Amino acid sequence: MTIDITMYVRAPSRISAYLDWLQMLTGAGLILFMWSHMIMVSSVILGPGVMNALAEFLEEYYMAQVGGPIVAFIFLLHFVLAARKVPFRAEQQSTVWKLSRQLRHTDTWLWMIQAFTAMIILIMGSAHMWTVLSDFPITAAKSAARVQGGFWLVFYLILLPMVELHVGIGFYRIAVKWGFIRRKGRKGFKRFENILTAIFIVIGLVTLARFWFLALPK
Amino acid sequence: MGRKLKFNIFRYNPQDPDSVPHTDTFQLEETESMTLFIALTQIREEQDPSLQFDFCCRAGICGACAMIINGRPNLACKTLTDDLPAEITLMPLPIFKLIGDLSVDTGTWFREMNENVESWVHTSKTFDLEAEEERMDNSLAEEIYELERCVECGCCVAACGTANMREDFVGAVAMNRIARFMMDPRDQRTGSEYFEVIGTDEGIFGCMGLLGCEDVCPKQLPLQDQLGILRLKMGWSAIKHLFRIK
Ligand code: HEM
Ligand code: SF4
Ligand code: SF4
Ligand code: FES
After folding, report:
1. Chain B residue with minimal CA distance to A3?
2. What stretch of H or E contains B28?
3. Domain residues for B33?
4. Domains parsed from chain A with CATH numbers
5. Where are the alpha helices (DSSP H) in chain B?
6. Cα distance from A35 to chain B (closest Cα, Å)?
7. Number of helices and strands (H, E) in chain A?
8. Which of B214, B236, B235 is nearest to B226 (CA)?
9. CA diameter of chain A
10. B22-29 and B4-11 beta bridge pairing
11. CATH number of the domain to which B208 belongs
12. Closest in A12, A84, A111 to B161, CB measured
């Protein structure tokens, strides 16, 4: 039975709109950060000297020391905002799970991947940020030693595809949600986004390989 | 010719206390240009007269026959068995109240939705029976008509992850309704009046952009485009309010 009387009138509020803006902007900010992050770290492919010089430059002007915590804050804010959309109740989880399996619909699956990768990134991303930000200065040798230790290699091999998937899907989602990409452009943009994600994963893998084979100073 | 079709059909009669939800299987020989409407009618006439399902126009116009066909919501009357594998599973639409078997009550839901978004032209002008109708630009009329084509079948709601998880979410069809009135120059509602109706987490900001609605709508309504336009419009309207820009 449905009840056709409204017992109260909600005060008009714009809070949903502001929170949605913030969710999108923090997401977009993190995408930009992840792209520049990848460019900076992969500079080691050109040589450890290049990466060291970049890191030294960023630290000399305190960009890393100030930027790091800012990114960590945006990361946290984005998590709190986006988590509003994640189903935490078991009943909702089983509903979306059933729907996704039944519907066989790519975009619904993409969202499931986004929500799942988000949880992994929350934990592993925090651990990664803590390790790097509590151990200045950043040098190629220190990173290489971590990777060659084995534990961090496995850690990054998991985190890398998680982040790239989340970033890629998030980029696509922002574009369709906010009407930047319309029906006509959707298919093409999705293909572009998939290629971009693949490229970033490959660059990440090559970077890890470079760290793995980097000769450590004795 | 004539494949042997196997139908797995959801059965449950909520009126009958002895009824339990289960699946019944029916076999049927496929005939030429067979739609699910023809197949279901044949099953009811020849095999099980108690089978419940809805049809009206049989031409994809009334929206009564929407159901979950092999996992996807669609109109049964315009689905050819030829486009489906030989095993066909039919379920009622979720979210809506089940009347029995494949029949659901979309009417109550849609009535409530239309009331919630106040789906009518709001105007202070008194209607003059004698006067000539106001003219509208032809291209605008066509744009409005494009959104008017919705047959209220409920497929977009059934395919929406958000609507499945959250009963209070209004669904793409409601946003499409609002978008239609925002285009209409006769509707005198202001931006903030529209915002009150749709600028919430039950409305456009609850939509997660999964685009299930866009991909299943049997009338191919431009739902993705309308949702995007609406989000941007409502988003800007909130920003303008924040900085007190008129
Ligand atoms: C590397 C860090 C991250 C980046 C670059 C990133 C990026 C994005 C982007 C761009 C979106 C789309 C935003 C939108 O649709 O409005 C998004 C959505 C989402 N993010 Fe993240 N994110 C990151 C970390 C996280 C973390 C740690 C969580 C933890 C819960 C998370 C949870 C989510 C969820 C659930 C969504 C979907 C929200 C929706 O569809 O409305 N993200 N993310
Ligand atoms: S928008 Fe499309 S799927 Fe939704 S009710 Fe209307 S016709 Fe059906
Ligand atoms: S885009 Fe997705 S979340 Fe939004 S109304 Fe359509 S199906 Fe629902
Ligand atoms: S019977 Fe009217 S749309 Fe199918």
Report:
1. B112
2. strand B22-29
3. 4-104
4. 15-85+113-213 (1.20.1300.10)
5. 36-46, 106-116, 138-148, 155-158, 161-165, 172-183, 191-198, 212-216, 223-242
6. 23
7. 8, 0
8. B214
9. 78
10. antiparallel
11. 1.10.1060.10
12. A111
Return the residue matching tokens 């619909």. A105
Q: Which two tokens stand for residue A94?
A: 């089983």
Tell me, yes or no, whether B125 and B160 share the same domain.
yes
CA of A105 to the centre of ligand 2 (A): 17
Q: Can you tell me the ipTM of this complex?
A: 0.86
Extract the tokens encoding A173.
Answer: 């989602």
Q: Count the neighbouring beta carbons within 10 Å of the beta carbon of residue A75.
A: 18
Instruction: Report if residue B112 sits inside a domain.
Output: no
Q: For the segment B144-190, what is each residue's pLDDT rounded down to a tens digit?
A: 999 999 999 999 999 999 999 888 899 999 999 999 999 999 999 98
CA distance A102 to B91: 11
- Residue B93: name the closest of B118, B112, B117, B110 by CA: B110
What local confidence, expressed as pLDDT, does residue A170 receive?
93
Give B208's contacts in chain A (Cβ within 8 Å): 85, 111, 173, 177
Fill in the amino acid letter for A13. S
Are residues B137 and B225 both part of a single domain?
yes
The structure tokens listed for A148 are 């060659």
For residue A10, CA distances in Å to A7, B197, B204 come to: 10, 11, 17
